[in-house]
Amino acid sequence: MEKLIGVVGPCAAGKTTLVANLRRLGYRAKHIAQEHSYVPYMWQKITQPDILIFLEVSYENTLLRRKLSWSRDEYNEQLIRLVHARQHADLVIDTNLLDTQGVLQNVETFMIEKGFRNP
To answer: Could you tell me the CATH number of the domain that includes residue 58?
Structure first.
């Protein structure tokens, strides 16, 4: 069976877009909403991914990307909730300076380097 890719990160990091793009390419991918859970290892309970990808985004960029009405404290709370997932991530991508294709290219390069070919 092909590898399951889990994607985590704060709101507006690009998780939904990355998962959709990976699925279009034939990968098994799942958006894991760990940022909304107080249970540090919930990402492992929700999904047991073979590969965990963490997407980083700055507070400022979350406001530019989506019409979020949240405070820096709420953003920081999400980062705290994501610590465990980030520590266990196989790949961390800073999405601040990348477009959706750049993020996807980072994942594809990682998958090839690790020997996981496009299905």
So the answer is: 3.40.50.300
